[in-house]
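sry for the spam today, last one i promise. struct tokens for design, 343 residues
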């Protein structure tokens, strides 16, 4: 049998890290008992994401059109805001000016990393089912502090409203979505749209009216900045990320920053929500707590969780790993949710 190449060995190692829900960042934290620099963290994210998101390429259907790298904030001249772009996808052949139900997805990366383009494959898969899908980029910490990314997401929503015909967006049928830190941003954006008083408290002006959103899709998010239930290296990662994003590792103790714990600010009228996380996700407890908070406020919730003994265990952001039956189940449930609330 031929000996595997170094490239093959590295690829298998990276896949193993993903399979067991343990990123390179977490390994570095646990081994060195120190947090690596932001460039190292971002490099580790790129390495992991390259494998995880490129693996979706074989599932991307033909017949999807796009408009990419669209600058959504013409007023911004700060070079640090180069991530203020969005990518949009819709089924090829959509008539000119036709408006489709629209999924606006905010990428994850612990507020300090990630790229909108990483979601391109996934959003093409969703778009093929008859939707316009949009992935929004935002300025990363430490170049931007809370609540700047939220203002940018609102600016992107305003841009989509203005360019609805050109991009096949239906402003009356928008669903917000996000993964990991992006799920926190999506949930907080939805809460601010539905509760202008809360938006004022955060310091963000909504660009959509209350009642506009049709739904919210939340995958593997962090919703309580006390990080209750989060332990080990992942907790160390998030504490450092919160320091860079908010200026303190414990923002829940600072009144003006505690607003980021969206779990405690869910308004009545929050849109119907689909929420999921893997059984081996270090953030699982956050999604379970968020589900409870939503239900306590009377929000219609469709949740997908797995037994503790489900094997193989489902890591953080399992939903992008479509080679897993559970990820395909999550996608099927996502389509059912979208059909129910945007049809």
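last one done:
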């Amino acid at each position: 049998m031929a000996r595997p190449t170094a490239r093959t060995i590295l690829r298998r190692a990276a896949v193993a890290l993903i399979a067991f829900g343990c990123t390179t960042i977490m390994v570095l934290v646990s081994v060195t008992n120190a947090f690596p620099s932001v460039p190292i963290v971002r490099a580790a994210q790129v390495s992991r994401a390259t494998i995880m998101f490129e693996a979706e390429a074989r599932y991307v259907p033909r017949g999807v059109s796009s408009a990419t790298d669209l600058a959504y904030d013409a007023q911004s001249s700060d070079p640090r805001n180069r991530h203020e772009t969005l990518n949009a996808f819709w089924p090829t052949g959509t008539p000119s000016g036709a408006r489709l139900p629209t999924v606006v997805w905010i990428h994850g990366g612990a507020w300090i990393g990630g790229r909108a383009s990483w979601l391109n494959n996934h959003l093409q898969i969703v778009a093929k089912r008859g939707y316009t899908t949009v992935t929004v980029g935002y300025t990363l910490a430490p170049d931007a502090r809370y609540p700047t990314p939220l203002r940018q997401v609102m600016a992107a929503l305003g841009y989509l409203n203005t360019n609805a015909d050109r991009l096949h967006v239906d402003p009356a049928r928008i669903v917000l979505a996000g993964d990991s830190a992006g799920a926190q941003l999506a949930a907080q954006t939805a809460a601010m749209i539905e509760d202008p008083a809360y938006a004022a408290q955060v310091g963000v002006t909504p660009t959509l009216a209350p009642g506009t959103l049709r739904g919210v899709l939340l995958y593997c998010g962090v919703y309580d900045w006390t990080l209750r239930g989060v332990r080990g290296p992942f907790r160390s990662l998030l504490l450092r990320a919160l320091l860079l994003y908010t200026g303190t590792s414990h923002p829940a103790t600072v009144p003006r920053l505690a607003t980021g714990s969206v779990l405690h600010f869910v308004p009545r009228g929050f849109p119907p929500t689909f929420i999921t996380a893997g059984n081996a996700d270090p953030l699982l407890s956050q999604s379970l707590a968020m589900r409870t908070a939503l239900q306590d406020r009377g929000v219609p919730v469709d949740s997908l969780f797995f037994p503790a003994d489900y094997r193989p265990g489902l890591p953080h952001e399992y939903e992008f790993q479509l080679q897993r039956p559970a990820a395909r189940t999550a996608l099927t449930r996502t389509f059912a949710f979208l059909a129910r609330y945007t049809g």
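The chain has a mean pLDDT of 89. ok im logging off now
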